Amino acid sequence: MATEERFEYWRRMAGLVVAPIVFVVLLWIPVGGLSAGAHRLLAVLGAVVVLWVTEAIPLAVTALLGPVLCVILGVAPAKEVFRGFADPIIFLFLGSFLIAEAMLRHGLNRRIAFAIMRKVGTSPARLLAAFGAATAFVSLWVSNTATTAMMFPIALAILKERKVAPAFATALMLMTAFAASIGGLGTPVGTPPNLIGLGLIETNLKIKITFFQWMMFGFPLTVALIVFLCFHFRKAAPQTGEALEVKSSEPLSVGERNVLIAFLLTVAMWITPGIIALARGTNDPAFRWFNEHLPEAMAALLGSILLFLLPTDLRRGEFTLSWRDTANVDWGTILLFGGGLALGELMFSTGVAKWMGEGIAHSLRADTVLGLTMLFAAVATVVSETTSNVASAAMVVPVAIAVSPAAGVPPLQPALAACLGSSLGFMLPVSTPPNAIVYGSGLVPVRKMIRHGLMLDVVGWVAVVLTVMWIVPRAMKLH
Description:
This protein is mainly α. Helix content is 73%, strand content 1%.
């Protein structure tokens, strides 16, 4: 333990030293093709990434420091810089966390955990596999953030009821986050980057990819990566804790019933657009109405607000959730992701994202379908590590579409590789909302998230390239 504590101390101290050096060096070195504001943003991004990796200061504080430095350095006005903190996804976080807190307070997550364990037993390997498969299936139709918010408190309840090794607790947390992101690859509506990629491809290439065509290559990709996760964590986190005696269920309490009502109503609002899209297509008026008037963030807020309205004891003025309970919400994670969104939007507006993509493509001289497919899958994966998956797709897919014709390559496959690669950022808490949510549990050290996430990034990159080069041509009948 002493060795690990020394390592953590020096890792943080190194971050405090290296981050300012990286900032000064990037600010001092002349960079062609970037405006003065974009150059300063590049320096800020370098320092922020170092601080996030080393945890020299709390991650949420780093997420605030980056935007503050951007305002001080004149990268953009404060209103523009901090706009990301009011993004709807922040309120999706808030609503999801409130629902999760209500589950924890009234024990509904524990009841659901018991139900899962009755079905699959208490074998660690089977628990991991069943939990990963269930999470991925839900994520086919619900966003990865919403899926993680649903499954996260259930995973906590499972861990609470077992004496487990820390490695198994970490594995279950990471399985929850990673499976939620992987499940989103399986359908067009599984995650926003898919819809962004489809929209850009249809608008710029005039190619319509149907729901069924997407599932022909997206669903096998999801299955392959989930199978890999199951074997990887089974090997990486053997667990020898005591078996759990699963007790018979007691009747639902009033609090549990209220949480279940709010939870099911929220889930219904989350999955209804996907069901409509599956049955009638994304051009259906009902699908468009849900997307415009009842997006996922509003559904989460409505469900969480309902918790403050449903009473548990009306005579005593007690409700399912009280304002005091909001003190338990992980506000640091919300700030963390807000900072990531803010910096991601600045990468767009200043041209840093386009500069990075075009520079990499030019320097590597990729001029074949395979070369550009490999390149843009990798670029999207790397970009998604430092900003949201949505931002990564919106940044990298247009570059893939623009660069491919210049290299004499049909752009569809590189564009799809960029789109799918945008969902592969697994290494950092800020890479994607599911990572941020499970990191908030305190059970996932950053170094372990980086180690397991890097492995999944590499395997996912290979799987995306194989899928795009082998399955996509058959699904799209390109040959």
